Amino acid sequence: MFGLFKKDPAKKLQQQYEKKLEEAMQASRNGDMRANATLTEEANALLAEINKLKAQD
Q1: d(CA 6, CA 16)
Q2: What is the pLDDT of residue 1?
Q3: Is 6 within 8 Å of 50 (Cβ atoms)?
Q4: Whole-angstrom distance, CA of residue 3 vs CA of residue 30
Q5: Are 24 and 43 in contact (CB under 8 A)?
Q6: For residue range 19-47, what is the model confidence (pLDDT) as tens digits?
Q7: Do residues 28 and 40 touch, judged by C-beta distance below 8 A?
């Protein structure tokens, strides 16, 4: 019952992951491949964290 209002950390990480992918896509469209690579790497790190959290459940 008390877990009803507990926030899901994976959901927050998922939103951050999607935002990073969107930023990476915009950087790619603007021709900034260095920023694209950096943002994609950050997104992959977030995805690894999400998978780790889901594996614990």
Answers
A1: 19
A2: 53
A3: no
A4: 44
A5: yes
A6: 999 999 999 999 999 999 999 999 999 99
A7: no
- Please tell me the distance from the alpha carbon of residue 28 to that of residue 52, in angstroms, as a whole number: 28
| Sign for the pseudo-dihedral over CA of 48, 40, 35, 14 | negative
Residue pair 28/16 in contact by the 8 Å Cβ criterion: no
Evaluated on CA atoms 23, 40, 10, 18, the torsion sign reads positive
Question: What's the whole-model pTM score?
Answer: 0.83
Per this entry, what is the length of the chain? 57
41/46 Cα distance (integer angstroms)? 9
Contact 50, 57 (CB under 8 A): no
